[in-house]
Write a structure and sequence with these properties.
Layout (H helix, E strand, L loop, with lengths): L6 E4 L7 H10 L7 E6 L1 E3 L5 E3 L3 H17 L8 E3 L4
Parallel strand pairs: 1-2, 2-5
Antiparallel strand pairs: 3-4
């Protein structure tokens, strides 16, 4: 933060709750200018690879999961969600 970082990108597909717990432990209370964005649209498959999950119902489920993740970050759920995709 002291080097001017104002944006952190995270997602539960990095490891359920792991990244968000580390961010909260390291940075909370957050600076006023910090933006924490979380991605949806990709999930981990059974082999720990990445799988596109951008169908409307799957996106809704992921946004709901990210709303719960926001609470783990001590944030309000309406902050930011970013649609990610696989090329």
């Amino acid at each position: 933060m002291e080097l001017g970082v104002t944006h952190i990108d995270t997602s539960d597909f990095y490891g359920p709750h792991v990244a968000n717990d580390l961010i909260r432990q390291a940075l909370h209370p957050y600076p006023d200018d910090l933006v924490i964005a979380t991605k949806v649209g990709v999930v981990r498959d059974e082999w720990r690879g990445f799988e596109a999950a951008a169908e409307p119902e799957r996106l809704r489920e992921q946004v709901e999961e990210e709303n719960m993740a926001a609470a783990r970050l001590c944030l309000s759920p309406e902050d930011i969600a970013v649609l990610d995709g696989l090329a």
